[in-house]
Design brief:
The complex is a heterodimer of chains A (329) and B (253).
Chain A (H helix, E strand, L loop, with lengths): L1 E10 L2 E11 L4 E5 L6 H9 L6 E6 L2 E2 L11 E4 L11 H11 L6 H10 L15 H13 L5 E5 L7 H16 L3 E5 L3 H7 L2 E6 L2 E7 H8 L2 E7 L8 H6 L2 E2 L5 E6 L6 H10 L4 E8 L2 H9 L10 H20 L1
Parallel strand pairs in A: 3-8, 3-9, 6-7, 7-8
Antiparallel strand pairs in A: 1-2, 1-4, 4-5, 9-10, 11-13, 11-14, 12-13
Helix pairs in contact in A: 2-4
Chain B lengths: L2 H17 L1 H27 L1 E2 L2 E2 H4 L1 H27 L2 H6 L4 H31 L6 H25 L3 H17 L14 H5 L3 H14 L6 H25 L6
Antiparallel strand pairs in B: 1-2
Classes of the chains: A alpha/beta (329), B mainly alpha (253).
Chain lengths: 329, 253
């Protein structure tokens, strides 16, 4: 679908993209995350023809953009980060113009369908300058989708869009995916990426730090926090609890525990607490969200192992076999 | 070649200037009409005839030229500049529109505005002087190439400009003096030396004289020379614009 190899973009002394390599699979929703100025928009710009890359290659649908920068664009839609609108035209005229740019004939049914999907149908004949900020943002999305592209870039699609409409947009994006559209999105709302993305890529200082399945990433780097409040003060924790990693607060009224890979589960800790007859009043658990994981990665959390999961299982089995062999001796 | 895309851009460019006809069509028409009335009637009384042509008729081709050149230039320069300014240039860059499609759309839009203003100027003049068209094909040829060349120059200016002020640089500091000194209101032949020889370095002189040949049937300079100069400018400007669009000059960072 999209192959980016060793993509570099320099603006004078600033390296905005520093050797980015990325493959986007057909039909996925890919979220590109990172702080402001990390290179997300530059990466999208280099693929969509807004930016002249310094080096590297970009292939869209198997076509190298250096060989043919125009024809792959028929199948691409872009929601740019900056709101833009042409004050000379109405909402529906803007969409007809956009359809035409992409080589499609005037199709009022399609324009109506897209306007309805983005709750803009009542504004079809309003001049674009009369739209509110959120409506202008939705018009940008409508413009990116009206020609039914196979690959859509959504650069901050819901900035300034209210909560209810954001939910509507999410369900529309999921509907697009069901219809076979591939979606690449950047967002400041981590909730959005968590809700929509199949895979996430984390970029900082122009470098792609990792690309991983969203759920695998949260599993790998995420934590589950347990907070237990006691009815009265406890004089120290039983040994098996503190050796497992549970911590008692200074006032002796609260226990906290963080479940990570390789440590006992929260359920196991709870079992130990009840077995010790501690006077539990309230239990609260919280699972890490993508936001927590993103911060960890930006602070230098380890990347996933290069070997795939089955390969790792094989290694484990090998170790076990070796262990058996040693024991057999 | 994206034919529908090109047609869409061309029709958008035309509708854009038709949305504000007071500014894009009517105002140039009024200013050229004023030139016509003021110069034609006030001066015309004293000058009487230029080379056996009544003065008021003599200035018509120059005024038509001015209307066409200015408006073709203004349409492409301001449209492209505003597109850059309001950010909608992203739509053009992301769309499957290559240099050919972009040039055909923008230049076509500028040419249509130049032709509309030129035609209306001519119609206003004809209301005073009666229709007069000596050579149809040479006139048509000059009209097309003049609007093309100035649309292209406007496009290049719009591409280059980063401030509004720069859009006006070429029309005010280059086009206006060269046009006024280019034989719109007088015959270059009548100038004393050294002004006559100096004037022959002004390319506008040949363009105005070429159109004068087409419309009035006679001119003091060879129309072929005018056509050649316009042809050379057209080829050079097109090559520059094409190369600039291919490289992404001032459009893609």
């Amino acid at each position: 679908m999209l192959e980016v190899r060793d993509l570099v973009k320099r603006f004078g002394a600033l390296t905005a993209l520093d050797g980015v390599t990325l493959d986007i699979r057909a039909g996925e929703i890919f979220a590109l995350l990172g702080p402001n100025g990390a290179g997300k928009t530059t990466l999208i710009g280099a693929v969509c023809g807004l930016i002249r890359k310094t080096s590297g290659t970009v292939k869209l649908f198997g076509i190298d953009l250096d060989q043919d920068p125009v024809s792959p664009k028929y199948q691409v839609g872009l929601v740019p980060q900056e709101i833009n609108f042409d004050p000379f035209f109405t909402v529906s005229e803007s969409l007809f113009i956009q359809l035409g740019y992409y080589g499609k004939r005037r199709d009022p049914a399609r324009v109506t369908e897209v306007l309805r999907a983005l709750s803009l149908d009542e504004k079809a004949s309003s001049p674009t300058r009369a739209l509110s900020g959120g409506m202008k943002r939705r018009l940008l999305i409508a413009k990116a989708l009206v020609h039914a592209p196979r690959l859509v870039f959504l650069d901050e699609p819901t900035a300034g869009v209210d909560v209810e409409l954001r939910r509507d947009l999410w369900s529309y994006v999921r509907k697009l995916q069901t219809g076979g559209t591939t979606i690449i999105l950047t967002t400041h709302y981590l909730e959005e990426a968590e809700e929509l993305a199949d895979r996430v890529g984390i970029i900082n200082d122009g470098k792609l730090l990792l690309v991983e399945e969203k759920s695998a990433l949260i599993r790998r780097l995420g934590e589950k926090k347990l907070e237990v409040r006691f009815k009265q003060k406890i004089e120290g924790l039983p040994e098996h609890l503190w050796s497992a990693g549970a911590v008692l607060s200074a006032d002796g009224c609260r226990l906290s525990y963080v479940e990570r890979k390789g440590r006992p589960s929260v359920g196991e800790i709870l079992r130990l607490i009840y077995a010790a007859h501690l006077p539990v009043e309230d239990v609260e658990t919280r699972r890490s969200r993508l936001e927590d994981v993103l911060l960890l990665v930006l602070r230098g959390a380890p990347k996933p192992e290069p070997a795939s999961v089955p390969a790792r299982e094989e290694t484990l089995r090998g170790d076990e076999l070796l262990g058996l062999a040693v024991r057999d001796k | 070649m994206n034919v529908i895309g090109t047609k869409t851009l061309l029709s958008k460019e035309v509708r854009r200037f038709l949305r504000v006809p007071g500014q894009t069509v009517l105002s140039p028409l009024i200013s050229t009409s004023l030139y016509f009335v003021v110069f034609g009637y006030s001066l015309g009384g004293r000058v009487q005839e230029v080379g056996a042509i009544p003065y008021i008729i003599f200035i018509v081709p120059g005024l038509v030229f001015m209307g066409m050149a200015n408006n073709s230039f203004l349409n492409t320069s301001s449209s492209l500049f505003i597109t850059k300014l309001q950010g909608t240039v992203v739509d053009l860059l992301a769309a499957p529109l290559g240099p050919t499609e972009l040039l055909l759309g923008f230049i076509g839009g500028g040419m249509v505005r130049g032709l509309v203003v030129g035609l209306l100027t001519w119609a206003v003049a004809a209301a005073f002087t009666g229709f007069r068209l000596a050579h149809v094909l040479p006139t048509l040829g000059f009209v097309i190439i003049v609007t093309y060349v100035f649309s292209m120059l406007g496009f290049l200016t719009g591409l280059w400009a980063e401030k509004f002020e720069q859009i006006n640089f070429f029309p005010i500091f280059v086009m206006l003096p060269l046009t006024f000194l280019g034989g719109v209101f007088y015959s270059v032949e009548a100038l004393p030396e050294p002004w006559h020889s100096i004037s022959l370095f002004n390319p506008m002189v040949y363009m105005v004289e070429g159109l004068r040949y087409g419309m009035l049937g006679s001119s003091s300079l060879s129309p072929a020379l005018g056509a050649s100069i316009l042809g050379v400018v057209a080829v050079v400007a097109t090559a520059f614009a094409y190369a600039a669009l291919r490289s992404g000059y001032k459009l893609r960072v």
